[in-house]
Amino acid sequence: MSVLQAKELTVAFNGVKVLSDLNLMIPSGRITALVGGNGSGKTTLLRVLGRLLKPTHGSALLDAKEISHLSSKELARSLGILPQTPVAPEGLTVRELVTQGRYPYQSWYQQWSKEDEHMVEKALTTTHLLDLADRQLDSLSGGQRQRAWIAMVLAQDTPTLLLDEPTTYLDLAHQVEILDLLDELNATQGRTIVMVLHDLNQACRYAHNIIVLQAGQIMSIGKPDEIITEELVRQAFAVECQIIPDPLTGTPLCLPIRRKTQVAAHAPLT
Fold it and tell me: Where in this chain does the record put each ABC transporter domain (predicted)?
């Protein structure tokens, strides 16, 4: 199973460091969530791990090989990446989008095959999109569109999936739908999943491993129930909170505490 890691990883823009000397290893066959405040470096780290961004110093490695040294097709057969706001050509159907996931396996001597067709059908089935396969992508709901993009990544048949805020712009029902799907993929297929999440409680509930970033550095890394504390939330998010066990899962549940100034602002007039 593929092992993804970073060594002394640094990214700087115009001389300003966004990530600084990061060293980490992503657990194989598990779900890892990248969390932290805005500007903490979550998306930058994910983009470097997926070779969408070149580090200023250090390296990202896949199975001990520098990602920068892999061919595009070799990487696309190992890593599937879904950016935060993917854009598809107008008029594309769900099936046509999912078919694009098989392009890494095409060449001048190997055209569309039964294996390609099988993987597309499998991806559509796994994401519960067979009935919508011939619908245009822009006619679907937000949750359905996100499932279609995930199906395209699944059609690549990669052991590792990188997803940048897969629940962005979705209502609560569709957020749960997508996270349940990813949880199912991990549980039934053993996929390694790395995703950026803004919701700390969702990260605690769905991820086996959490990486907390602050100002481009790793503040903490480990299992949710081992690292998520009131002090960590205070430092990483500048929020006072109470951490209690989630009544359904037993994982940490963060209850933000309203600041005194906010309470005073809402006090009734006398």
Answer: 4-240
